[in-house]
Amino acid sequence: MAKKHSFDYFEAFVKAVDSSCAAASLLNDTLRNFDPDRLEESMTAMHKIEHAADGDKHRMMKVLIREFLPPIEREDVTELTQKIDDVTDALEDVLVKIYTFNIRTIRPEALEFMDIIVACCCSLKKAVQEFRNFKKSGLLSDCIIEVNDLEGEGDLLYTRAMRDLHVNSTDPIEIMVWSKTFNYLEGCCDACEEVANILEIIVMKNS
């Protein structure tokens, strides 16, 4: 009798990061080709990405409940899955806030943030693709370092963007709106770093 194929958790992790990459790409395209009157279209597309990612996460959790021996500890599967989902959620939050705040023009620092966020997601995808062979992969640690370095760039950009906003803007509403928006953009970088950190912890626990 043929052996039943078990659920491929590592492929599921890659699929989850694919959703984050798709969300980052959509947000990047939306901000670079910004049309405030078409934001609802972008929000609908973003929600489809986020909803599909949530569905994949719930399916994995159902499998995990029944799983006799997952490839890594259950709590690690759960935490990694949630951290990846947090990235997608954080990206959607940025778009929702831009719509809610009725932002009509995009500040250049937001586009700089998107360069960093897209790069973070690309590095995360490479890291998760290597995760299956974490005991032998030399590339995985390099990808984790890349994400950490990019998050550091995000911190520096956040400080510069906030200072420029407060020095050069005299509109209190603009200052409030963009302060919060920069917080959400920087939060995307933080969410990516959280994924890299949990990957590093799992590797250390299983090496």
Automatic annotation (TrEMBL):
Q: List the Pfam families.
A: PhoU_div
InterPro entries given in the database record:
PhoU-like_sf, Put_Phosphate_transp_reg, UPF0111_domain
Q: Which Gene3D superfamilies match?
A: Phosphate transport system protein phou homolog 2, domain 2
Q: Which domain of life is it from?
A: Bacteria
Q: Which family, according to UniProt?
A: Belongs to the UPF0111 family.
Protein's name according to its UniProt entry: TIGR00153 family protein
